[in-house]
Design goal:
Strands 4-10-9-8-7-5-6 form a seven-stranded mixed β-sheet, sandwiched between helices. Strands 11-12-15-14 form a four-stranded antiparallel β-sheet, covered by helices on one side. The N and C termini lie far apart (68 Å). The chain is globular. It folds into three domains: 41 residues, no CATH class; 121 residues, Aspartate Aminotransferase, domain 1, CATH 3.90.1150.10; 218 residues, Aspartate Aminotransferase, domain 2, CATH 3.40.640. Helix 4 runs antiparallel to helix 12 and helix 6 runs parallel beside helix 7. The chain contains 15 helices and 15 strands. It is of the alpha/beta class.
Length: 408
Amino acid sequence: MRGKLGAVNLTRWIGVCAAGKRVARAMRSLFGVEIQGATVILESMSITGYANQFLCDLVAYVPGKPIEDTAREHGLRPEDIVKLASNENPLGPSPMAQEAMREAAGLMHLYPDGGGVKLREALAAKHRVEFDNIVLGNGSNEIIELLCHSFLNQETSLVAAEHAFVVYKLMATLFGAQYLEVPDPGFIHDLPAMAAAVREDTRLVFVANPNNPTGTLVGQEEIDRFLEALPEHVIAVFDEAYFEFLQNPADTVKYVREGRNVCVMRTFSKAQGLSGLRVGYGIANKEVADLLNKARQPFNVNAMAQTAALASIADEDHIRRTVQNNQEGRAMFESAFAERGWEYIPSHANFVMVKVGDGDAVFREMLTRGVIVRALRSYKLPEWIRVSVGTARENVRCLQVMDEVIQL
């Protein structure tokens, strides 16, 4: 075959070479291609052509809109913006955690404790489990990833509810596993249907309790029956990021004490107000915990995060104030939504999901007025938004803006 090199289907090679004669001889020898001159140009391909196709097709997780971006895009002052989009603690971090961080600031040139010994010991004592039952994560999101590292591949599947936390689907896709989505009538996990959806290749079943973004809850008796129905080859994962806001929570840690194939996930991002530090943990039987520890990076939880989390465990007053603020704000929102005739889902977490018509449009209009909420199209809920509970002032401001926007 003779002719211009561009006619040859040799992708991935673009070059400019002064040694034209040497390149020409090499190309004649290898491919029978005649090259004129010293410049060699081959057809190029985007690097994404060599990436895993399932990753290219994946829709990335979209976090809540940052205050700084909103201020810049809409000509607003950051201090005038109310962010009720990401289920953060409006009271901020524990004062005890803040003081501990100030004292630890001078030690940040040292690597963190890769085993997280002090924090794991404190968590083990708090939950009445063994030290080896605790796995630390860079937020509880990393515990999800470690579970998928340990148990998922292209020959396995994961079961979750239709409107469960979107990261479960993202992680299953990244590890090539099949995502088995079970309908959730009334936005509540249908545990019998989820148990029935389990297959021989299923390794993980995720139950977010309370669930994000719906705020719904399943109780102890339902969970007990659910676990009895699961086969031994399945790990039941209880995502309890909003555990502290519950009045009468189910006891899922007892299953870990019994040695069951269970992993309970908790976080310091919500009630403790440490979202920016990214620290969470899993409580699992020792076999599962050992696998997760093998999969994690050695310094996955930074030193400042460990310091703040350890201090916040002891600050029970901060948790009480946080829970009280949440109860009052959540009740205010739900009462106001009911008065206006807006459909909402009674919540057990620190947010409320409410139906507003065009959720994307309401989200955008509220942004222009300096209030950030969360649109839910990515959860297949385009008519809904999720409103986090803020301070009393922030909640009133949010409701005022909702009134303005929804009447447009």
